[in-house]
Amino acid sequence: MRRMEWKGEAVVGTGSVLMVSTSGTHTFSKQNQDSIQLLAGLGVEGDAHLGKEVKHRSRVAQDPTQPNLRQVHLIHAELFDELQAAGFSVSAGQMGENITTRGVDLLGLPTGARLYIGDAAIVEVTGLRNPCAQLDRFQPGLMKTVLDRDEQGNLIRKAGIMGIVLSGGQVRPGDQIRVEWSPEPHRPLERV
């Protein structure tokens, strides 16, 4: 995956949308679509995670009034390439993401980075997806493969990022993604 070039407050470079997916129920995988509509402050129209308050089942059980920092789930297609090389059969939408990207270092973004997608949509990055046991129910051994350790032994979560919709718009496969980093000091992504 190519690294984006740092230039002051923004990152110069683009990636693209490979696929868009949604599910109106809390299913693990989402169905691929011709397009999805992002709604400002809410998420993906018709998706089970749409709303201002948290919709993720385990978080709703803790406190249903928490803000929804998981309105949009994005995964980089490069992860699927890695998983396929390790013997897994995974394609866009199957790990529950709404937007599958290519050419954007999603895991290298700081909290608060903005993704300008297509003509109008803007998604602000809130954090990392925390992989759960559903991955192993989908394909045994998958969860271990989307977790790693860096040189210092810190856990690396590779199952994508989460964001909130700042500006709505239609998103389709083939749309360009432009990245704008948040102002310094940059805060690394943490699980949300």
TrEMBL record:
Transmembrane segments: none annotated. Residues 31-180 form the MOSC domain. Gene3D superfamilies: PK beta-barrel domain-like (2.40.33.20). SUPFAM superfamilies: PK beta-barrel domain-like (SSF50800). This is MOSC domain-containing protein.
